[in-house]
Each structure stands twice: as C-alpha cells, then as structure tokens.
Amino acid sequence: MKTVDLHTHTTCSDGTYTPEELVYYGKKRGLSAIAITDHDTVDGTEEGEYYGRKAGIEVIKGIEVSTEYNDTDIHIVGLFVNDKDSAFLNILSDLREKRRSRNVLMAEKLRALGKDISYEDIVKAADGGVVTRAHAAKALMAKGYTGSIKEGFDKYIGKNKPAYVKREVPNWKTTLGILKENGALAILAHPLLYNMDRYSLDSMVYELSQNGLTGIEAYYSTHSAADTEYIKSIAEKNKLLPSGGSDFHGRNKPHIDLGDENLIVPYEVLERLKERKVYEQGEHQDNCQQ
C-alpha cells in the first residue's frame, strides 16, 4: 500500500534534516509522498520539490502556523501552499520577527535564572533556520544546563515554566483567512495535544470548520487506533477531510520516525485532499468571474 506523511520539518525551522536529506530519507523509508511543513517559513519547499523529482517521491509544499483559539495555542498546517505569493511571504516575515522578539525575552529570563544563554546562542543553535523554542532548548543543552531538549522544556521554557514567554500570534480566524487567500488547504494539526475535553474539542472544530478549515489530522504519531477513529468521526461530522503525518523533526524528536509501521497514512488521504484543492480552485475562479 502506498503511504504518505503530510507533516514534517526540516532545518529551515526546527528539524535536523535538510530538505534534501528529508526527501531522500522519506524515499528510503518507503513513503510515496511527504509534505514539508516548517514553522512560519516556506524556505525549504522549493528545494524539497526539486529533490523529490530527482528521488521519485512526491513533495507537497506546506507550512505550519501557530495561532490562538480562546487563549489556547493551536497549530494549523497549510497544504499546497503557493510559496511565491508575496503577500503571504510578507506575513511570514512578520511572524518570524515576532518569534525573534519572543526569543530575546526568553534569553533574558534564562539569564535571570542564572543560565548564561544569550539570544545569539539561540540563533546559533538554529543554524540558519527559523528560531524556535527547540533552539533555546538546544542552547541550554550545549552549555550543559540540561541533558536533553525535553529537559529544557520541562524545566525552563515549556508553558508555565520560569523562562516561558508567550508568543504573539494571529487569531484563528485571521490565520484561516491568510491560508485561504494563499490558496492553501487549512488542516488542524495534532488535535489531541491541546488537552481539551471532548466537548471543547468538538466545539472548536465545528467553529473552525465553519470558517475555512478543510481537514484535521486523524493520523498522528501519538494517536492510538481509537484516537484515529475518534478524530475521523469528528471529521465526518464536520464535513472535514482526514489528514495526517508524523510531525517528524529528526534528532530533535528522536521518538518519531518517518514511515513508522504504527503510523500508516494511506495515499488515498492525499488523493482526497488533492481533489478538494482542485474543487476549491475552481470555486475561487468562478467567484472571481462573477
């Protein structure tokens, strides 16, 4: 059976594989298609698509954007992104600047805790990619303050920890509008990671589905079979398409691998998303001609 992974990260954000390495690794792991969905950047999508053609594996251009719903941080994956859209690229640049401001404040908090961590240390850990909290965790580890990235989050920079800084992000309606204007399909990422009860999750998905959400990640690296069926039922109820992927970050999340036998995302999932993309493109063109 042909399988896909529609949620992966590269060195352009907080992964440890370059776009080229990710593509060839996905091919080696037996995948027929992958989506590159880095945080707030599409810098790796063109390179990934190029190497996908060489390797014989389909590469979907994507992105992962942080947003906020009723004071809860949630993530939206955009699939089939137009990475040449100048207005979209300007928005992403602004999001990355907000990341920069957050990391400056986080470094200040870490120093106040007696940790010799500068913003430059965090940037160095990013090695040219979008700077995220994972890079602050790497900087802590590099200086011997922690033994792992997870420990950095658990002790210092995770939510409600002493060096945590909330990042300014667009609200969910704005985010869905941004992706719609770009022509991307909006997918709610890892819905069970938001620690919502079933009523709250159902309510949120319903509201998002009424405002431009196309799909939801039913298949995810931490989902049990029951979890997957539960999210599929939410998708069906809200006329959403199931999507899914590993959220692969390479060595930054060593417990997650591409092509894992416990995460089977059938190629049919991608085919249905492609059909929806074609339908929405036609609908948009019809509206423009009226």
What does this structure look like?
Helix 1 packs parallel to helix 2, helix 4 packs across helix 5 and helix 5 (133-142) packs across helix 6 (149-157). With 290 residues, the protein is an alpha/beta fold. The chain has a 7-stranded mixed β-sheet with strand order 1-2-3-4-5-6-7. Helix content is 46%, strand content 16%. The chain is globular. Strand 6 (213-220), helix 9 (225-237) and strand 7 (241-245) form a beta-alpha-beta unit. It has 10 helices and 7 strands. It has a domain at 4-84 and 184-289: Metal-dependent hydrolases (TIM Barrel).
List the helices and strands and how they pair.
Layout lengths: L3 E5 L10 H10 L4 E4 L8 H11 L2 E12 L2 E8 L6 H27 L6 H8 L6 H10 L6 H9 L14 H11 L2 E4 L9 H12 L3 E8 L4 H13 L3 E5 L21 H23 L1
Parallel strand pairs: 1-2, 2-3, 5-6, 6-7
Antiparallel strand pairs: 3-4, 4-5
How much of the polypeptide forms β-strand, as a percent range? 15-25%
Mean pLDDT: 94
Which geometry do the CA atoms define?
A: globular
Number of helices: 10
Would you count the extended β strands for me? 7
Strand order of the largest sheet: 1-2-3-4-5-6-7
- Could you tell me the radius of gyration in angstroms? 19 Å
Kindly report the name of the CATH homologous superfamily of the domain at 4-84 and 184-289.
Metal-dependent hydrolases
| Sheet with most strands | 7 strands, mixed
Secondary-structure-derived class:
alpha/beta
- Helical coverage, percent range: 40-55%
For the record, give the distance between the C-alpha atoms at the N and C termini, rounded to a whole number. 43 Å
Ranges with pLDDT <50 over ≥5 residues? none
Q: What's the CATH C level of the domain at 4-84 and 184-289?
A: Alpha Beta
- Give the H and E element order: EHEHEEHHHHHEHEHEH
CATH fold-level assignment of the domain at 4-84 and 184-289:
TIM Barrel
The CATH architecture of the domain at 4-84 and 184-289 can be named as: Alpha-Beta Barrel
